[in-house]
Amino acid sequence: MKITIERTKETIEKEFSGKAMDLLKEIGVLVEDVLIIKNGQLVTEDEELDDSDEIKLLSVISGG
Amino acid sequence: MNCEQCDQRAISTKPSLCKDHFDSFILKTAQETIDQFGLFTKNDRICVAVSGGKDSLALLDVLTRLGYAVEGLFINEGITNYREFSLKDLDDFIKRSGIKVRTVSFEQEAGFGLDTVMKTKQFHACTVCGTLRRYLLNKYAQDYDVIATGHNMDDEAQTVLMNLARGNSSLFLRTGPKTTENEASIKRRFVPRVKPFYFVSEKHLLTYTVIHRIKTDFGECPYAPDSYRMHLTEILNRYEEEHPGTKKHILETYLALREPQQHVISIEKEEFDHLSAGDVEIPSGKAEELIEEIASVLKNQ
Ligand SMILES: [Zn+2]
After folding, report:
1. Which domains does chain B have, with CATH numbers?
2. Residues B146, B40 contacting (CB under 8 angstroms)
3. Looking at domain A2-59, does it have CATH number 3.20.20.70?
4. Which ipTM value was assigned to this complex?
5. pTM (2 decimals)?
6. What are the residues of chain B with a beta carbon less than 8 Å away from any beta carbon of chain A?
7. Which of A33, B52, B151, B297 has the fewest CB atoms lying closer than 10 Å?
8. Quick one: average pLDDT of B53-67?
C-alpha cells in the first residue's frame, strides 16, 4: 500500500489491509489530525482498506 | 459506516454524515452560532478577514450560501514563498465564486513587507504582523458592520487553554464569538469582530473545503511557528480522540463562566504576541508607532 502524507510530502510503502483507523494507529497518526483519502475519495476512519489502495492523508492542522 | 440521517456512505464522523447531510450540518452550525450570539443580520455588511487559508475561504463560501452580504479583505504581509501560494488559491476562489475581495499590503500601507522587517532581526514577527493586520483590518473595514474571521472551535479551545495555562488573566475572559461594543470602542471606530465558526471543528472545516473543492494548498508561516499553540493542539487532539466532545465542552464551560462584557480592550505588548487575530482591539496609535519605529530602524541600516 502506498501512503502519502500531504503535510510532510512523505510517502510510505507498507503492507496493510484492514480498518483505516488501525493503519493510522500503526503509523502513529491521530484520527483527529487527518482526513483520509482512499483512491481519491474521502472516507471515514472505519473504512476497510485493501493493500492495493492508494491512501493520502490530508493534515487538519496547517495554520491559517 | 452509513449516514445517521440516510443510507448513503458517511464521509464524516462525530457526527456520521454523508456528503449532503454533512454540508447541511456545517451551514446549520454556523447559522445557529450567528443567531445564538447575535453576530449579525441579513441587513449587515460583513467584511471577512481573508488569510488565504481554508478557514477564511470556507467562511466566505458559507456566509454567501446562507444569504449574507459578504466581501473579503485580504492582508498581504509580504512573506516570500508563503503568500504566493495562498494568493493563487485565492485568485482561483475569487474567479469561481464572484465574491469581491480587496487586497491591502503591508508594503503599500507601511512601506515594508514582513520579510524586510525580519531581516533587521530587531522585531518579533508575530508582534509586527499581528499589530499591522489588526490595524489594517479595522482601517479598511470602516464601511462594514462587522469583521468576520475564520477562527474555528480548535483555535478557540486552544486560546482558552493557552490563556489559562499561561496565566493571562486579563485576556482570559476577553475572547469569544463576538466582541462587545462599548462607548470607548465606538469612539475609536473599532469594528466588532465575530466568529461564525466558533463551534465548527478544524477537521470539519477541512472536510467542507475538500467536498467543495476549495483549494488551499499552502505551507506554514516561515516566521516564529507558535510552538506553544502547536503543543497544545497536539495534546488537545489526543484528548479529543479519547474523549470526544472535549473541545466543545471547553468552549461551553468557558462561555458559561464569561461575563458578556468588557471584551474590547487595549493590552500590553508582551501579552499580545500569541493571540488569535480576532480577539482584541489594537489602538491605531500603537500600530502607527510601531510602523514609525520599524521605518527608522530600516532607514539606519
Ligand atoms: Zn445522509
Report:
1. 37-299 (3.40.50.620)
2. yes
3. no
4. 0.94
5. 0.87
6. 1, 10-13, 16, 51-56, 86, 154, 202-203, 206-207, 210-211, 216, 218-221, 225, 230, 233, 237-238, 240-241
7. B297
8. 93
